[in-house]
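Entry for the shared binder. Reason: the reviewer on the internal report wants the predicted structure included alongside the sequence.
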Amino acid sequence: MDTWMSEEMLDDPEATLTLAERTYLQLREDIITVHLAPGTILKENDVMRRLDVGRTPVREAFLRLQRDGFVDVNARRGTFVSRIDISDLTAIYEARARIESWATRLAAERLREPERREAGELIEALKALSLPSELDALLALDRRIHRFIYRCAKNRYLFDTLDHYHNLSLRILHVAMRRFPELSPELDKVVQEQILMLEAVCRGDADTAERIALHHVLSFEQEVRKVI
């Protein structure tokens, strides 16, 4: 499956996705948001019934989820949602930092007018947040912003790589933010940085956008490192 196309198609209700793609994306979303908790056994028949799909799409989805690190397959025990090691967040953020800041620079350089309007809408959504906000809503908006930046960089390889890293880190964050409430005050800083970053992207200030994006990733990683 072409991740670049599939993520774009997710926002289009008329988009055509195969059953295997839909199954993969739904299961991945349930795993990222921890609706399917780490260690949960995934039985083919249960997934087929819940998602109203056949066995082949489920098996194809399991294979891709395994390749992406979201499930583990044991020949004897079956397929399980992979365990979370919060310390992995540091390694993922290290991988994201330079790549994501570079993608943000490209976004500032390549932004088109319709995307500038979309960025303005995201800025208004950030300003409308009332912190402390509901965690799932805040993380969902954060995800929209990151995907917007990846898309505006107009490099499918960067998009695929960064979207994968962000999905892995987002799943850990869903657990970490609940386990360590002391991280919550840092969310206000995150929101302000995202506003500044999007504003820099909108005015084509690539240097500032890149610098803010780098600090955005590394600073929150440092906060997480303090509590794990």
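Summary line for the report: The CA atoms of residues 56 and 189 lie 45 Å apart.
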